TrEMBL record:
GO CC, any one term: mitochondrial inner membrane
InterPro entries the UniProt entry points to: Mito_inner_translocase_sub, Tim10-like, Tim10-like_dom_sf
Assembly and binders: Heterohexamer.
Keyword Ribonucleoprotein assigned: no
Subcellular location: Mitochondrion inner membrane
Domain writeup: The twin CX3C motif contains 4 conserved Cys residues that form 2 disulfide bonds in the mitochondrial intermembrane space.
Protein name (database record): Mitochondrial import inner membrane translocase subunit
Species this chain originates from: Daphnia galeata
Source species, domain of life: Eukaryota
Membrane disposition: Peripheral membrane protein
UniProt keyword Protein transport, yes or no: yes
Length: 102
């Protein structure tokens, strides 16, 4: 093999590793999404659906489910914001400590 072929093979290997890593990230994100979706469905169903005598959804059940979903999503969004804020502070503290040591 020539040095050009070896360099091309290294680049291909790095690209493949990058794609695999990216696929793993998306797999975990999708798994987390499905977990949240299932939790939302379970919580709102248990809280809001109480009449099993009819095939139709009552207005009360429908509005309860909408409110439940909105609350869940807003809480999830707020938790994500707080986590991001915490991560920024943690990174800033780690950087400050590294500057003190170094």
């Amino acid at each position: 093999m020539t040095s050009e072929a070896i360099d091309a093979a290294k680049i291909e290997a790095e690209q493949i590793k990058s794609l695999i890593s990216s696929a793993d990230v998306w797999k975990y994100r999708f798994r987390d999404f499905l977990f949240s979706y299932n939790k939302l469905s379970e919580l709102c169903f248990v809280d809001c659906v109480w009449d099993f005598t009819s095939r139709t959804i009552r207005d009360q059940e429908n509005s309860c489910a909408v409110n439940c979903a909105e609350k869940f999503l807003k809480a999830n969004q707020r938790i994500s914001q707080r986590f991001q804020e915490f991560q920024v502070l943690s990174n800033e503290n780690a950087l400050a400590m590294a500057k003190k040591v170094g």
